[in-house]
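User: Here's a structure from my thesis project, written as structure tokens. My advisor, Dr. K., wants to see whether a designed sequence matches the one we expressed. Can you design one independently, without my sequence as a hint?
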């Protein structure tokens, strides 16, 4: 069957988006593929269409449970019944059933942690798969912005011979991250498709403040008078809660979203936002991956992100409908110090390495260090991975180099804020690309008119009624907590 006909038959589309056809053709030819496609460019179709053309299951390794569930729900809404998600939400009986009938599914989603469980790993290795997909593949990179040791181990389940093609998908990746992806996935001369990282419809604005309190005041006033939907990114859970509460007090429908909330609460908030019942989400970087909302008009960074990759991932959630959107980057002197702290917070320190090796040397269980609070789960996982492969001194050196690299990434974001060169040009060059033309209302450094890009906010009676109800409920919960 011709790809064009298959696209029409299975998805109802008359034409591919840029890059999709080249990616799929190479997969169908049995080649490994690294595909860098911006948010909203149809990455999922690059494995879904081959899934209908191949007769064997497709395995998709996905880093976030919310992202995985969103993709599974989308397939089910399309009428696909042969889809399963292997994750921690499954009961023992559901997991047993899924593993028994695993070969009957067309699409198998799995978290990296679940994939490496002995029972799941053995079942996957005995199956014939048509394609293995590493979604959000930047998470594989040791220099990436979501250090996940279990993701580094995906290569362990892959046979050196007679394995299916591998598709690595991401929205953004530097040359260093691309090299890591290829190395850890043991890819063989992969075909590369790298789409232009520039999103012309997203206009870049930076705003400098002398006091941190001024930033919050500006956010409240700005959001009160301009149209959403929008996302406000901040670095701490407490600040996300505080800002969302202030917005609610201004009759603005908003909610805080962060990893400190229960999974069901996060899912409910996300669904409210997608359905248009919330104007604004105030979030840590826990929010956004896999969130498919076309009409986000604004993204505001209350504090600077730790990397330009984070910045591009997060502003890329705006303007997916192709219409004008604005990304605001707010800065106050000293914000970079907090960004450095956040960037290196979960990196193991020398004392962690020493304690881990000490417990191992005396025949103890390193898990006890996690149980008694001596180290976080991320630190434990990182050390479990690297101390099984390198000496303690090598791991200390690796962690120090990683910290230096992360600090250098923060400095690049600071340069974006303080340098007078075109902001768009700086970001695009970070990803090894060049701008092909100058655009109108490009960025703060090139000249921009906010009133031309952001509409005034219209307040509906329904929205005020709903917001007041949410505000009263939140006050009750705070009083009784």
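Assistant: Designed independently from the structure alone:
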């Amino acid at each position: 069957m011709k790809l064009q006909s298959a696209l029409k038959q299975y998805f109802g589309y008359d034409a591919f988006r840029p890059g999709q056809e080249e990616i799929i053709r190479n997969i169908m030819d049995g080649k490994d593929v690294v595909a860098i496609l911006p948010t909203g460019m149809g990455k999922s179709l690059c494995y879904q269409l081959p899934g209908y053309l191949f007769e064997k299951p497709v395995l998709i390794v996905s880093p976030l449970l919310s992202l995985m569930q969103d993709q599974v729900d989308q397939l089910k809404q399309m009428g696909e019944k042969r889809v399963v998600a292997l994750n921690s939400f499954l009961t023992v009986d559901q997991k047993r059933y899924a593993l028994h009938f695993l070969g009957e599914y067309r699409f198998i989603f799995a978290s990296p942690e679940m994939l490496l469980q002995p029972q799941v790993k053995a079942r996957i290795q005995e199956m014939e798969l048509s394609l293995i997909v590493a979604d959000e593949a930047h998470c594989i990179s040791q220099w990436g912005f979501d250090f996940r040791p279990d993701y580094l181990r995906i290569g362990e389940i892959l046979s050196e011979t007679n394995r299916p093609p591998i598709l690595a998908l991401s929205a953004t990746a530097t040359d260093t991250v691309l090299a890591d992806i290829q190395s850890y996935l043991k890819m063989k001369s992969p075909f590369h498709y790298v789409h232009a990282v520039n999103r012309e419809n997203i206009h870049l604005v930076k705003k400098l403040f002398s006091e941190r309190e001024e930033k919050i005041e500006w956010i409240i006033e700005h959001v009160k008078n301009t149209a959403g939907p929008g996302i406000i990114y901040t670095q701490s859970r407490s600040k996300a809660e505080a800002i969302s509460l202030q917005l609610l007090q201004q009759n603005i429908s908003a909610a805080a979203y962060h990893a400190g909330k229960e999974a069901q609460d996060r899912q409910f908030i996300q669904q409210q936002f997608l359905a248009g019942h919330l104007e604004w989400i105030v979030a840590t970087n826990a929010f956004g991956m896999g969130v498919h909302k076309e009409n986000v008009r604004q993204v505001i960074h209350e504090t600077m992100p730790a990397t330009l990759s984070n910045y591009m991932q997060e502003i890329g959630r705006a303007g997916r409908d192709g219409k004008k959107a604005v990304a605001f980057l707010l800065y106050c002197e000293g914000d970079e110090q907090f960004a450095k702290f956040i960037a290196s917070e979960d990196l193991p320190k020398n004392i962690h390495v020493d304690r881990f090796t000490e417990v191992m040397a005396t025949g103890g269980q390193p898990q006890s260090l996690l149980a008694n609070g001596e180290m976080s789960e991320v630190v434990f996982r990182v050390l479990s991975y690297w101390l099984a492969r390198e000496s303690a001194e090598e791991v200390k050196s690796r962690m120090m180099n990683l910290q230096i690299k992360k600090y250098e990434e923060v400095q690049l974001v600071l340069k974006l804020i303080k340098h007078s060169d075109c902001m768009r040009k700086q970001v695009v060059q970070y990803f090894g690309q060049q701008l092909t033309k100058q655009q109108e209302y490009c960025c703060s450094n090139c000249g921009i008119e906010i009133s031309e890009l952001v509409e005034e906010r219209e307040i509906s009676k329904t929205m005020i009624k709903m917001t007041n109800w949410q505000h009263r409920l939140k006050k009750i919960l705070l009083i009784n907590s």
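When you compare it with your expressed construct, this may help: The chain has three domains: 3-194, 202-338+412-480, 341-399.
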